[in-house]
Amino acid sequence: MAQRILGIDPGTIQFGYGLLEADRGEGSYLTAGVIKAPRSMEIGGRLHRIHTELLALLETWRPDVVAVEEPFIPPEVASRGGHRTSVRSAMAVGQAQAVALLAAAHYGLDVHRYPPSRVKSAVSGYGQGSKQQVAAMVGLLLGLSKPPEPVDATDALAVAICHLQHERLNTMV
Amino acid sequence: MAQRILGIDPGTIQFGYGLLEADRGEGSYLTAGVIKAPRSMEIGGRLHRIHTELLALLETWRPDVVAVEEPFIPPEVASRGGHRTSVRSAMAVGQAQAVALLAAAHYGLDVHRYPPSRVKSAVSGYGQGSKQQVAAMVGLLLGLSKPPEPVDATDALAVAICHLQHERLNTMV
Fold this sequence. Notes:
Two copies of one chain form a homodimer.
Chain A: E1 3-9, E2 14-23, E3 26-36, H1 43-61, E4 65-69, H2 75-106, E5 110-114, H3 116-124, H4 131-141, H5 154-172
Parallel strand pairs in A: 1-4, 4-5
Antiparallel strand pairs in A: 1-2, 2-3
């Protein structure tokens, strides 16, 4: 039975989404994009805009399941900016994640969370790669003639692919 | 002109709220409480429950303004639990704060944020004090015959008092 997987790469300035249709373990591309909230806007307004646009997407596309990149603060952020920066980034990630969780809960959808390393290795096999490389891999995996646009949304598609792989492994057991 | 101030002490397990009516710089107690989300519930379900109950509160009480305790991770958490605990706490605070910001934005309400030290000093004058002391001070400031119940909600009332003080100082200038 075909299943729609919405992958999300949460952020409070750029909030990426990518939708796949999975049929017998094969994923095909439906749509992808980035919800943008201007940095100049107050955080409450930004979250509200992202939440509203995300609800509209869910209403339009009716995914069956949501996969979210698990909040994660790279250690280098902590060491570069010190404790304060790290805590501030973690709060922002928590805020963006909350928007995704609330919208999914509004539609009664299950949410699966995957750490970034898992997402990257799902598409590149070795857990590394630039945004462009990830985009190229995502394009290849989905059999697209060129990498999906915009490149900022490919991380979200990678999250959806990661969930598809996870499900495929589970059914093989 | 009388104004209703909703104070919020955000959390993903206990989410405190306290409502005051302010008239000519004097605050009077309307209601206070804690929205509880069971620890056993998935984070998405908890945030959804808090969001739903908070929207119902806003619908019932129609505050004019919202004051939220600013996310803050005490340094001792970081040094006790290390970087990992600190980041995890910061994400949880961000999630709970996002719920408050989204609900306020839904009603087009302004949100003011205050750091915990500011909130404590608004009620105790020297920025210290146990939960019981804060409760007793809040009761005295609002002219209640006994401290407001439950004690867990008094922090949220203290946030509302903090905003009232802030406004009072602004009008004096």
